[in-house]
Amino acid sequence: MNRLIQNNVENILNQFNIPSAWHKPIYLGIWIALIWLLGKFIRARITKSSLDNDTSYKAKKAIVFASYLIFIIATVILYSSSLSGFTVALGVAGAGIAFALQEVIASFAGWLALLFGNFYKPGDRVQLGGIKGDVIDIGILRTTLMEMGNWVDGDLYNGRIVRIANSFVFKEPVFNYSGDFPFLWDEIKIPIRYGSDFELARSICKSTVQQVTKEYSAQASVMWSTMTKKYRVEKATTEPIVSLVANDNWIEFTIRYVVDFKRRRATKDALFTGILNEVAQTNGKVQFASATFELTTLPPIIINTDKQR
User: Fold this and answer.
1) Would residue 151 count as lying in a domain?
2) Cβ(274)–Cβ(211) under 8 Å?
3) Sequence-separated (6 or more) residues with CB below 8 Å from residue 5
């Protein structure tokens, strides 16, 4: 069928007296246009479908990859007769090309590993090397991140887009904050002055964290049960924990809790606000501690300037 279409195209080109040297490039251009139009039509249909964002994204990426593959196959078939005499030369040059393009080849292999290795997917929050951000695109050669942190405190975007070669997955650890378990354990510390009602302080901390994170605790418990079936991990407590340590300066409460990976900063804000409001209503029974430095005057120093004779 391909040969029949090619013959028909050549007949049409001959009618317009187009040189035969231009026949194959024009024929290849027609193939490219058809592949592009078909790919665009399929991607538009996928966009209008009821697929979720992740499935839709993967389907579109598969269409793009299939388009490239069809283009390469069509080019090889079209020029196969011309390339037959250069087989040996291409084989010799292939080793040099592979060495020169080793980073590109490694990035392509990394892309395949990302597709089938479940390292991360678009929408995940990851840290690659020292770069932390949300994955917004996974290309054949590069992964694109919306960076967060750096000069911005907390898990907030700084507006910078970072592109990292896919070969990175073979060289450095990949930290995924939202893979199979989209929750994180986080902690805050509350210093309380000695002499305060520490049992009341503990009660305030516990009731506040339970109220703020109760939804996360329930969801995390279900997700962790799934994790124990998939991986060799022990059961973990997803309920909030309040622990006390008495040091030289104050009584310190550490509040440990699970939180959605996208809500760390907002959750800390809610916890500190709730605890501050509750402590303010204790009428001084619970007081926060802070480091205080007291400067005292030096004792008088008597200097004897008389010389001994």
Assistant:
1) yes
2) yes
3) none
CA distance 76 to 31: 13
Specify the residue for token string 């040969």: 3
Q: Are residues 194 and 246 in the same domain?
A: yes
Sheet (strand 241-246) strand order: 183-192, 251-260, 241-246
Domains in the chain: how many in total?
3
Residues in the chain: 309
Q: Which two tokens stand for residue 97?
A: 């090309």
What is each CA distance from 238 to 36, 94, 170, 210, 217, in whole angstroms?
A: 50, 55, 33, 11, 5
Tokens coding 61: 């990426």
Q: What angle do CA 237, 254, 184 make, to 5 degrees?
A: 45
Q: For every one of its 309 residues, what pLDDT tens digit does the chain have, with 9 covering 90 and above?
A: 455 555 555 666 565 556 565 656 766 777 778 878 888 888 787 777 777 666 777 777 777 777 777 777 777 766 666 655 555 555 656 666 666 677 888 888 888 888 888 888 888 999 987 899 999 988 888 999 999 988 888 788 898 999 999 988 888 889 999 888 889 999 999 999 999 999 999 999 999 999 999 999 989 999 898 888 888 888 888 899 999 999 888 999 999 999 999 899 999 999 999 999 999 999 989 999 887 766 666 677 777 666 554
Give backbone dihedrals phi and psi of 133, rounded to 5 degrees, phi first: 175, -175
**Is residue 304 in some structural domain?**
no
Q: How does DSSP classify residue 300?
A: P
Q: What is the pTM of this model?
A: 0.67
